[in-house]
Write a structure and sequence with these properties.
Two copies of one chain form a homodimer. Chain A folds into two domains: 134 residues, 60s Ribosomal Protein L30, Chain: A (2-Layer Sandwich), CATH 3.30.1330.10; 180 residues, PurM-like C-terminal domain (Phosphoribosyl-aminoimidazole Synthetase, Chain A, domain 2), CATH 3.90.650.10. In chain A, strand 3, helix 3 and strand 4 form a beta-alpha-beta unit. In chain A, helix 1 packs parallel to helix 3 and helix 6 crosses helix 10. Chain A has ten helices and twelve strands. Chain A is globular and about 65 Å long. Chain A is an alpha+beta fold. Chain A is 36% helix and 22% strand. At the A-B interface, helix 1, strand 1, strand 2, helix 2 and strand 3 of A face helix 1, strand 1, strand 2, helix 2 and strand 3 of B. Chains A, B: Catalyzes the ATP-dependent phosphorylation of thiamine-monophosphate (TMP) to form thiamine-pyrophosphate (TPP), the active form of vitamin B1. Chains A, B: Keywords: ATP-binding, Kinase, Magnesium, Metal-binding, Nucleotide-binding, Thiamine biosynthesis, Transferase. Chains A, B: Belongs to the thiamine-monophosphate kinase family.
């Protein structure tokens, strides 16, 4: 059955299933943050045929990814999520089940973090789009900013990088995965379709900061790629960095699947891994890595100047003072 | 010059002009509400060729209307605005000046209420769309809800109704306005293109409630039409109403321009006047009407039951117990 068969009221009833009862039915939703918290707000928009394809991406995965991208930004500010609103544009010929599955994907990702859908708007459109705004709360002294990395800070990276890009490649060209196991393929594809925002890191981070009496942490999420993330932090903080690329973690299966150059391309420029890059005093950094059960690594150090130098101890002659370039970033409107 | 000529970074720089410096440049924006306030959140999406036409509506007006619709929802909850985020979908062939004018329209409407654009997302799309999310704050005992109108409450309506619908008609068919003055035409068109959210009413309302020691007010904004608004409040509160249609204010020029039936059609079903409909004890209602300098009127009373009866004292035989019908509402996905 299509959306145009049931009209707006019935479609809204379907969507209300996924919202807390007290959130819907008025001009706006009400949330009650903890007193004295700052409010964190972020917006992310996905458009059919630009950020996903209705033909090849399941609505469940579109919903999950849309939510994950927003919650990752909340985590990247050091905040806890309070709720999201959903602006949804739909052509009349979209199946009702597609919309239902979209909301199932959004709530599946939200449930892990007890975060409700508190409002939204449903509109007719010639193209499907999903505009999510997420709200979170954070103690004002605990905000993670991009512009406060200091010389001598250790640079921590959580999780693995390049996995999402590898998964995307397997979705686009399934035949190139024939040399790696089905299980390895699924793990990579899942990294791309169902990224997990690293809100779990934040509580460990505060424990470490409390024990070290540290006042601030610099950082952001790596959604636009690890290279861009390190660039942004250094640029906004007015510092440089030395990165030991041997300390950066990527899926072990890359060794049997990709050339070394391709591995670094995926790791640095792949994007959408939604991990966190955090800069703090070395002692605190070591404690955090331990707390995260080695699901994080110190990959370098913040330096004076503005250069970001990549060092490879194993192959010093192959990557001699390679500098991360800025102009490889994806531009939405480039010709 | 087109968007595709300059790329995303330069377009973002253009947009950053319209945002406070400390709001942009990180994963999310930070806002600091007054302690112990509840957070109010609302979203509204406009799509080209559905809610406006890029061909006939200026980008300034699209921006103004998008902001006004959201701030009206904030006012309708009794809240003060804190900020908005803007999700913007753009085809590459849109003129840069169109985007600049859009932001000028948004900020022009926001400036009257000291409300900043604190974040957003800019994406490529085959159709222009504008997804605005607005945040406000309200003392928890001051929230205006739809579901708490009580039998005996007076029903206040602010401003005039039908003006926006009249303005739309003049935009669609300019020739039909030949019998009214140019000035009257412009006032109606302006009501449609530049509606003003009634945040100004809220402070007067609290003064009255404080002086009357009233604990709650029911209400909402009339963006979906006056008939739908009264319906919603009555339905959600489990009450009925008697409306004296002679007390409802509409633009005086309607008398020389429209038939009586047409007048009531515009007034009750036109929509987008973005006025407030508020229900409270009669004494408080009278005080509020006085404070608003008669830019508001008591149009009826909340009754037991569920019927909404329209009375016309001047023409009792023409509108004998006319009941507002629910099925005239606009449905976005109707065939």
């Amino acid at each position: 059955m299509k959306i145009s068969d049931i009209g707006e009221h019935k479609l809204l009833q379907l969507i209300y299933k996924y919202c807390p009862k007290d959130a819907v039915g008025d001009d706006a939703a009400i949330l009650n943050p903890i007193p004295d918290c700052s409010l964190v707000v972020t917006t992310d928009v996905l458009v059919d045929k630009v950020h996903f394809s209705k033909m090849t991406t399941s609505p469940f995965d579109v919903g999950w990814r849309g939510v994950a991208a927003n919650l990752s930004d909340i985590a990247a500010m050091g905040a806890s999520p309070l709720g999201i609103t959903v602006g949804l544009g739909l052509p009349g010929d979209v199946d009702i089940s597609w919309v239902d599955d979209l909301y199932q994907g959004m709530t599946a990702c939200l449930q892990a973090y007890n975060t409700p859908i508190v409002g939204g708007d449903l509109v007719r459109s010639s193209v499907i789009f999903l505009a999510i705004t997420a709200f979170g709360q954070v103690c004002p002294t605990r905000i993670i900013r991009r512009n406060c990395a200091r010389v001598g800070d250790a640079i921590i990276v959580t999780g693995q990088h390049g996995a999402s890009r590898g998964g995307l490649e397997l979705l686009l060209n399934p035949e190139i995965g024939s040399c790696i196991s089905y299980n390895d393929q699924q793990v990579l594809i899942n990294s791309h379709l169902r990224p997990k925002p690293r809100l779990d890191v934040i509580e460990h981070l505060w424990e470490v900061l409390n024990s070290e009496s540290l006042l601030s942490v610099a950082g952001m999420d790596s959604s636009d790629g690890l290279a861009d993330t390190i660039q942004q932090i250094c640029h906004q903080s007015g510092v440089g960095a030395v990165i030991e690329i041997d300390n950066i973690t990527f899926p072990p299966v890359f060794h049997q699947w990709l050339s070394k150059d391709k591995i670094w391309e995926y790791v640095f420029y792949g994007g959408e891994d939604f991990q966190l890059v955090l800069c703090m005093a070395p002692k605190a950094a070591q404690k955090l890595v331990q707390k995260l059960n080695k699901n994080a690594a110190i990959i370098g150090v913040i330096t004076e100047g503005s250069k970001i130098i990549l060092q490879d101890i194993q192959f010093p002659e192959k990557y001699p003072d390679l500098v991360i370039s800025r102009d490889r970033g994806f531009q939405h409107f480039a010709n």
